[in-house]
Amino acid sequence: MSDLQELYANRFSEEAEARKNRLWVEICRYLRKFIPADAGTVVDVAAGYCDFINNIGIGKKKFALDLNPDVQKHAVPGVEVLVGDVEESMGRRFAEGAVSLFFMSNFLEHISKDKISSLMRMEYRLLEKGGCMLILTPNIKYVGGKYWDFFDHITPITDKALVEEAESIGFRTERVVERFLPFTTKSALPQAPWIVRLYLALMPLSGRVFGEQSLLLFVKP
Question: CA-based diameter of the chain, in Å?
Fold first, then answer.
């Protein structure tokens, strides 16, 4: 087992992962409003345990990319898995203009700023015209010192920094929900699916109280 596999196996027990997946059913129900229903190729970058790509229910072709080989255990039938460096996997598998949506959740804080920029530029090239880059990320402005409670967090991120970089590449900022979800599924807040559904129904008010992650949607003009 690799160091990466050990880290995430220790972080998420089977019970915790099952609970997290139930939450993502509700989160994906909410996120569908930001994604064209006729999207062609949908790519979950650093898919982890495939909580997004398994539950989003949109995309004629679905892909899960991750460095951790355990991603293969979690993808449901119909999701193609690519194991390895995500940029290298993208470059091998997708032609320019072939992707409708790139989704990244809780990933960018794990890589360097240079890598973030390089990744966003590659996604811009691979997106079709009108294609989207949807990002969910902890925002250090609201998380504060808790941001560093995870050993593999290396880059502090804010919504404004991502907007600046994305727009410099050529993306159009379509939507920024500065305060969206709580920092982690290990939060002390109640996490029953109906509570998550209510939380999302009360956005943006609920986010203003509990949100420590930002949701950003960028479009390739």
Answer: 43
